[in-house]
Design goal:
Layout: H1 2-22, E1 26-27, E2 39-43, E3 55-61, H2 68-75, H3 77-84, E4 87-92, H4 108-111, H5 116-131, E5 134-144, H6 146-157, E6 164-168, H7 179-187, H8 194-202, E7 214-220, H9 229-241, E8 250-252, E9 261-267, E10 273-280, E11 287-289, E12 305-307, H10 312-320
Helix pairs in contact: 1-3, 8-9
């Protein structure tokens, strides 16, 4: 009887922790200049609220028809934050900016350095770094769909702030973007060389000589919204920025015994990954999750999240280097 009671208490604690981690986002209304007119939410796990030790920061950007709460719940970032100890920033689009609640990745005045929405997000990051003990050497971005392209813009505009980014169903940074090019590019990305793609990024910081963030890409082969070839352009752009080629150095078929996933790694000269590409068969415009309580399980199904027995957020955290195998 005592053993059953103990198991019940443990189960209750796990469930209540899960529910707590999916809510309790805190809105910050005053974080400095906000030229993009975005909202700011964040999550600080209980283990860090009274800590002075510097911890990583994840910037998580939602997709269209989503908000901060939706991407937090579906991605499972808050649960991982509680478990491994890091902060999560959730920028949120406003209906007044975009009725579809998409980040405006197709407007030059929202993606070029120090303009519009991308500048607002940069100011949020700086505000958190000034307010909390953030390890500024370990700031990461993550985005789904429209949020993915905006995440690439942050990496392109502020490479000195970001260590790595995870791009789910996104595409390359395009400094020539407008609404028409944005819509056509989703279905048929322009044909550019790796040099041409990389120059679009370099023009944002013409005197920058430092390293560019490492790139992690997830894309489903059956994506009906963002053409799969956008990931090819993204690989061309970021391998060239890292001064490596587009020939894979490591190919892992049936990654983690999932027959639909091929993990492809492009290494830099120092054998550090420049780009990691998760090429996913039998997947549309979706985030992969694996609801459950196992060590590598998490996330919730929803409008843009599907159970594929693969908790992509966990593996992204592993690729970020925040947790070790």
């Amino acid at each position: 009887m005592l053993r059953i009671l103990i198991l019940f208490i443990l189960l209750f604690h796990m469930v209540s922790s899960f529910l707590f981690a999916q809510k309790d986002l805190k809105e910050c209304k005053y974080f400095g200049s906000n030229p993009g007119n975005l909202a700011m939410f964040m999550y600080a796990p209980a283990v860090l609220k009274d800590s002075c030790h510097k911890k990583p920061l994840i910037v998580a950007l939602h997709g269209c028809s989503q908000n901060a709460e939706a991407i937090a719940k579906q991605s499972g970032w808050n649960m991982l934050s509680e478990k491994y100890g890091f902060y999560v920033l959730y920028p949120q689009q406003k209906f007044s900016n975009n009725p579809s609640e998409c980040f405006d990745w197709f407007r030059k005045n929202d993606i070029l350095k120090d303009k519009g929405e991308v500048c607002s997000i940069k100011n949020m990051i700086e505000f958190i770094c000034d307010s909390l003990p953030v390890d500024t050497e370990h700031i990461f971005v993550y985005g789904l769909s429209a949020g993915a392209v905006m995440a690439v813009s942050i990496m392109a505009d502020y490479p000195y702030m970001i260590k790595a980014g995870a791009i789910l169903a996104g595409g390359p940074f395009n400094s020539e973007m407008n609404a028409v090019k944005g819509m056509t590019g989703m279905m048929a990305p322009p044909d550019k060389s790796p040099l041409e793609w990389s120059n679009m990024v370099r023009r944002q910081n013409v005197t920058y000589t430092g390293k560019y963030p490492e790139m992690i890409i997830y894309h489903g082969q059956n994506d009906p919204v963002v053409n799969f070839r956008n990931s090819k352009a993204l690989i061309d752009q970021w391998t060239y920025l890292h001064k490596t080629d587009t020939i894979p150095d490591i190919i892992e078929n049936s990654f983690q015994n999932n027959k639909y996933i091929t993990k492809i790694t492009y290494l830099q000269k120092d054998s550090v990954a420049a780009v990691i590409f998760y090429n996913i068969a039998n997947l549309g415009h979706r985030l992969m999750v694996d609801p459950g309580t196992g060590e590598t399980q998490g996330g919730s199904t929803g409008l843009f999240a599907v159970d594929k027995d693969f908790f992509s957020t966990y593996w992204i955290l592993l690729d970020f280097g925040i947790i070790k195998k």
